[in-house]
Amino acid sequence: MTRILLVEDDASIVANLTEFLQKEGFAITSVDGQLKALTLLETSAADFDLLLLDVSLAEGNGFAICRAVKSTTSLPVIFLTASGDEYSVVTGLDLGADDYIAKPFRPRELVSRIHNIMRRYGKANATLEYRNLMVDVNRGTVSRNGQEILLSALEYRLLLYFLNNKDMVLSRSQLLDALWDMAGEFVNDNTLTVYIKRLRDKIEDDPQNPALIKTIRGIGYKMGD
Question: How far is C-alpha 136 from the geometric centre of its chain's CA atoms?
Answer without folding.
Answer: 13
